[in-house]
Amino acid sequence: AIAKPEPAPHLRPVVASREPQPVIVKLDQVYKSFGDNQVLKGVSFEVARGEMIAIIGASGSGKSTALRCIDRLETIDSGSIEVAGIRVDDPQVDLHKLRREVGIVFQSYNLFPHLNVLENVMLALRHVKQQDKAEARRVALAALAQVGLDEKANAYPEQLSGGQQQRVAIARSLAMAPKVMLFDEVTSALDPQLTGEVLRVMEDLAANGMTMLLVTHEMNFAKRVADRIIYMHQGRVWEVGPGEMLDHPYTPELQAFLAADL
Ligand code: ADP
Ligand code: MG
After folding, report:
1. Which residues contact 147 (CB under 8 A, 6 or more apart)?
2. Which of 27, 33, 34, 234 to mutate to test the pocket of ligand 1 (most atoms within 8 A of CB)?
3. What's the confidence (pLDDT) of residue 4?
């Protein structure tokens, strides 16, 4: 018998647990430089519908840039990015359409301090989705209920904890019914006890089938909840695999990264 060639060990196959799903996000050989600093060096990966993928890696490895390119907050130098059938790298891309499909949540929640929680969540529904007041209110309250904050609808941001404010920011994105949600270190500014409540909201979203791509430092969370983990190193996808890959890192770089993190 002829031995089957092993797959590249740093791209471990993930055992399929369900029907193949359409690809929602696809990066193919993405390059991006800021001046002479090449930050993304041929990044390729896909996120299928309903998948939750966690990106980990050292500070400066290009994680945020990759996420920002997906929502076209940055343009790429070469390669291609497709989101829900939209070619993001097309110079003529319809940014309004793209941003209706992509929800993005950052470390800083950027709520409007002069608007209450409900008004913060309703804002884009009214102005971007052109929903009437009653409809926007209904959708916003449903999104707030999903993050467990419908009872805080009339509170102002300053009356909420950091964790609650971040959950409002998630609800604001969620209310737009995006096809994929991107999270960039959304718990990094929070105390450990507030981190848990935000992670639980994200775990809930994943369990309910939301397609998610998140950059995180929460290794245990990534390991437990993510379908796949992408380890980025110096602008490249260095190692990809299921959560257990963190127990058995293949590359010396991931070994060193995990050892430094503990
Ligand atoms: P990470 O999120 O993994 O920490 P980033 O994507 O934020 O990494 O940054 C990767 C590199 O790109 C860093 O060297 C950073 O200084 C640089 N960089 C990011 N954004 C910009 C920008 N807008 N202008 C210039 N350099 C940037
Ligand atoms: Mg970052």
Report:
1. 167, 168, 170, 171, 174, 201
2. 34
3. 55
